[in-house]
Write a structure and sequence with these properties.
11 strands, 4-stranded antiparallel β-sheet, mainly beta
């Protein structure tokens, strides 16, 4: 079975850190662009970061630049999102998805999101002030 499993969310104080994991089974993350999305209640979905092992490209939303780092461990077939200096506005459900699209191009568009081949269930990140 093909599966993407996001984990690592939790409750953290502002300024703290979390590392999210996106573990894949049934396919190889190195063959896809893996994108982290987040959505908070009442807000639009946001493409936070992505990585493509095929060409080594990465992307960060302006809201994530300088604080988040995406990486891929192909041996573990897992993509990580290290989130530092967390802010209350980072509070959201985060989930990962895998697709053939170029990393980051139109990341907030419906075409990008619905062009993904596989989606994982979300993990809740809550940052308290």
């Amino acid at each position: 079975d093909v599966q993407l499993q996001a984990s690592g969310g939790g409750l953290v104080q502002a300024g703290g850190s979390l590392r999210l994991s996106c573990a894949a089974s049934g396919f190889t993350v190195a063959d896809y662009t893996i994108t982290w999305f987040r959505q908070a209640p009442g807000k639009e979905r946001e493409g936070v970061s992505c990585i493509s092992s095929r060409d080594g490209s990465t992307y960060y939303a302006d809201s994530a630049k300088g604080r988040f780092t995406i990486s891929s461990d192909n041996a573990k077939n897992t993509v990580y999102l290290q989130m530092n200096s967390l802010k209350p506005e980072d509070t959201a459900v985060y989930h990962c998805a895998a697709g053939p699209t170029a990393c980051g191009v139109g990341v907030d568009s419906d075409a990008y999101y619905y062009g993904m081949d596989y989606w994982g269930k979300g993990t809740q990140v809550t940052v308290s002030s």
